[in-house]
TrEMBL record:
It catalyses: 2 GTP = 3',3'-c-di-GMP + 2 diphosphate. One of its GO terms (molecular function) is diguanylate cyclase activity. SUPFAM superfamilies: Nucleotide cyclase (SSF55073). CDD domains: GGDEF, PDC1_MCP_like. The chain crosses the membrane at residues 9-28, 335-354. GO terms for cellular component: plasma membrane. It is found in: Cell membrane. Its EC number is 2.7.7.65. It is a multi-pass membrane protein. This is diguanylate cyclase.
């Protein structure tokens, strides 16, 4: 057998591999860039389109959802028309989660009564109710929201709109004519620099009689902000438009409509100041296109968004070919330089290792024959000609093999034992903090979570609310139906409370039929809304034999929890729960 130098065995393959890799990378960077560039550009465009598509669909979906919910609610329960104040309160609560939901309304066919939840299109704090019948018939006025009676104090900053009959308005007449949900035209809001779009639908009772029209409207400035927030490449553009080319939102600054001599005109792709948009307006067919804008070649793609009830919008993205060609070329050159540098470094390191391996190999050979294994562990990494390897195979192989088996078995046993102990500790901790019946935190788990939540609120200067609630007349449930049903009632309460809070909020069985909640960073209005949904859930979910339970709630709320101890909040909530119990039960006292 011919023996060769280990140095040559290490260095030569690395040199050959370096030359081969360099040639492959050079071929890729010089020949294949032009073949894959358009594919890379189209992939980039589709990523942008997908982001815009998902945002638009998520943004518009609540309009249709709310219209359908209210439509069915009136259709199956037309008696709600007898007291539109409660309906107005529900509209207000429906709009709370949606910052740019400017209107949710209902207009009655019988007497023309109209109610609406109204919000500033820019999503500011101006959120109130309107009605055209509270003061006098067909006089449209605004009212502050009152969580108890819904219509609060009248807003006097704006004069009433007399003679407002919604049945003569386009949102009403168009829906009745269509016989189904219909979209309004995209148009500016009066007095606000933003576009809006609405969806209205007729409401019929189960006999097919027209009860009225419910409608929603949303400000589209959010979509314009979203497109402007997307980080596009230099001289790249994105737009959202109607099928006729009228613009809804763009990534480029500029007006979306103009008003001259009292006449408002929408800005379209064709009339936009950007020449790229003007040229794009000539090609609104779905798919990929190539445009030439002042000698610059653009890859242009159009994609349709199909909204409910026959509405269709268009997404367009334009990026210059030079942008993704340059990125791909720079990337390829960088990869080439990094790869070549890596292989050169490895080849030099291999040569250095091969030069210095001889002496350590001989030392390792002597250590392998030594009765003390520690001699092997103290040796440096070997680097020498391969001829010394024959003398290593006698004592070193057996020693290394035995040691490997011992170490592997030991590590497995240690790892298994560590895993068992960790599982047992976690199981014991979970059992000590959890209520066995409801699966909620018990009193101990609650105390730990409450202290942690209060510390978080103090450190981040956020609000905190402690809610204590108690099942009304719980002893009567046990006396009438037995303790098994009483346990079921406790489980129902636990399920309902968990369904109406956020995942990170604390829900605990405080003791007996008492439960406690801790919520950080939530407004008092939203807390009241969630607790009212809890009360509504009890009405829809009897414990047994149509027997419904109710609860009383006491709330201790702090905007700034920096100077308040847990016991202070607990005492205050207890007092308010006591007040709720003594004033009739089934109440929320905040």
């Amino acid at each position: 057998m011919v023996l060769i130098s280990l140095r040559r065995l290490i260095v030569i393959p690395f040199i050959v591999l370096m030359l081969f890799a360099g040639g492959i990378m050079y071929y890729f960077s010089t020949v294949t860039v032009s073949n894959v560039a358009d594919g890379v550009g189209l992939h980039y465009i589709k990523e942008v389109e997908n982001r815009v598509y998902d945002r638009v669909v998520d943004f518009i979906a609540p309009l249709n959802d709310i219209v359908e919910i209210n439509r069915k609610a009136f259709s199956f329960r037309p008696n709600q028309l007898n007291d539109l104040s409660n309906v107005a309160g529900r509209f207000y609560e429906q709009a709370v989660p949606y910052t740019y939901m400017s209107f949710i309304s209902f207009a009655a066919e019988r007497d023309g009564k109209y109610i609406a939840s109204v919000r500033d299109p820019f999503g500011q704090t101006d959120h109130h109710l309107t009605s055209n019948y509270l003061t006098k018939p067909f006089s449209l006025e605004g009212f502050e929201y009152d969580p108890r009676q819904y219509f609060g104090e009248k807003i006097t900053s704006a004069p009433p709109y007399d003679g407002y009959d919604p049945r003569k308005r386009p949102f009403y007449t168009d829906a009745v004519k269509q016989g189904d949900a219909v979209w309004s035209d995209v148009a500016p809001y009066y007095g606000y620099k933003t576009l809006g779009v609405g969806l209205s639908a007729p409401v019929y009772d189960q006999q097919g009689n027209l009860l009225g029209v419910t409608a929603t409207s949303v400000a589209l400035i959010e979509l314009d902000k979203f497109l402007k927030s997307i980080e596009l490449g230099d001289n790249s553009y994105a737009f959202l438009a109607e099928e006729n080319g009228d613009l809804i939102a763009t990534s480029k600054s500029g007006e979306l409509y103009r008003t001259e001599d009292g006449v408002t005109t929408r800005v379209s792709l064709k009339t936009h100041e950007s020449k790229a948009f003007q040229i794009a307006s000539k090609q609104l067919v779905m798919g990929a296109h190539t445009l030439d804008v002042d000698g610059e070649h653009y890859l242009y793609h159009v994609h349709a968004i199909a909204l409910p009830h026959g509405k269709k919008w268009l997404i367009g993205v334009l990026i210059p070919q030079s942008y993704y060609y340059r990125l791909l070329t720079e990337y390829s050159n960088s990869i080439l330089l990094i790869t070549l540098g890596l292989f050169i470094s490895i080849a030099l390191i291999g040569s250095l290792i091969a030069h210095h391996i001889g002496k350590p190999i001989r030392a390792l050979n002597n250590a392998a024959k030594d009765s003390k294994f520690e001699s092997i562990t103290r040796l440096p990494n070997p680097l020498s000609p391969i001829r010394e390897i024959d003398s290593l195979s006698q004592g070193l192989r057996v020693m290394a093999h035995d040691l490997s088996d011992i170490m592997q078995n030991l590590e497995k046993k240690v790892a298994q034992r560590t895993s068992d102990l960790k599982y047992e500790n976690e199981h014991l901790l979970e059992q000590s903090n959890q209520d066995e019946l409801t699966g909620l935190y018990n009193r101990r788990g609650f105390n730990v979570g409450f202290d942690r939540a209060l510390l978080t609120a103090q450190q981040q200067s956020r609000s905190i609310a402690f809610v204590i609630c108690d099942i009304d007349h719980f002893k009567r449930v046990n006396d009438l139906f037995g303790h098994t049903v009483g346990d079921q009632a406790l489980q129902v309460v636990a399920d309902v409370l968990k369904s109406q809070v956020r995942q990170h909020d604390i829900v605990a069985r405080y003791g007996g039929e008492e439960f406690a909640l801790v919520m950080v960073g939530m407004s008092q209005e939203e807390i009241l809304s969630r607790l009212n949904k809890v009360r509504q859930a009890f009405l829809e979910r009897p414990v047994c034999e149509n027997h419904h339970i109710t609860m009383s709630f006491g709330i201790a709320y702090r905007n700034n929890s920096a100077s308040h101890a847990p016991q202070t909040l607990i005492t205050e909530a207890d007092e308010k729960l006591y007040q709720a119990k003594n004033t009739g039960r089934d109440k929320i006292v905040a």
